[in-house]
Amino acid sequence: VKIRNISAYGALIHGAYLPTLGARVTLIAAHLEVCATVIWRSQERCGLLLTSEVDPYALLSEEGVEMVGHGLPPVVTLRRLGPGVYI
Question: What is the model's pLDDT at position 4?
Answer without folding.
Answer: 87
